[in-house]
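Bumping with the actual sequence this time:
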Amino acid sequence: MSETALHIKAVVLDLDGVIYRGRTPIPGASAALSSLSCPAYYFTNNSTRSRESYVELLAGFGITSDPEHIVTSASLTSEYLRGKYPRATVLVVGEGGLVDELRAAGLRVVRRRGARPLSAVVVGMDRAFTYAKLKEAQQALLSGVEFIATNRDATYPVEGGIIPGAGSVVAAVAAAAEREPLTIGKPSAWSGQLIARHAGVAPGEILMVGDRIETDIEMGRRAGLWTCLVLTGISSLAEAAATPEASRPHFVIPSIAEVPDLLRTLAAGRAPFDWVGEGER
């Protein structure tokens, strides 16, 4: 990396594995976020919660935010559907947060096929996934409606390990319907570009902080953001070092607690930590 000073104007942070694991906050998260010199936005692929519920969740960890600074794969999915199929009927395999976001966008949500024509099948994280739900989604997709996945994260970090994520449910539906979905959340470049417009800054003035190379970092790279991997979630330092240069994180730090120091070091034009990606953005 060059020694040129880099002034970041907004930080976008993943949630699971970056700020907390399950219900346990990452040490130093609240203090780090309160000392940032620029606005923080939160972007999670988790579709199970509404943006309002994430405000409440973060408040429980001592972190202040609002729905305008939170983006989820569910809110992006609702924005996509509202633009393409206003007031449409969609069949959903997912949890309450996804349903709430879709309904707030004026869409009619159903769990089973009926007389009303469907515009799309939307699949997200569903911890109550059943064979009956799989069959409903399969049959709807066989009729030719659009197939949308909120995200393809195969796993989800919690205290002490990982559990199946939305990608596991999506994979089952895709196999049954013999179709691949349009993925809305990370690593879609569209999602990163949307955040840049929302924040009102250029992509090259944003630092994306995440714990998963194939989603958080890949999205940032595709959208032209600076990227930082933290080692408190899914991806490891060894995986980062082995990743092809074009998809490698620009920076790797132990945890979110080091983000303020990283920003200060970048603004001063110094190489920040022991491992720094050397490739161009």
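The tokens above came from a reply further down the thread. Residues 246 and 279 are 7 Å apart (CA to CA).
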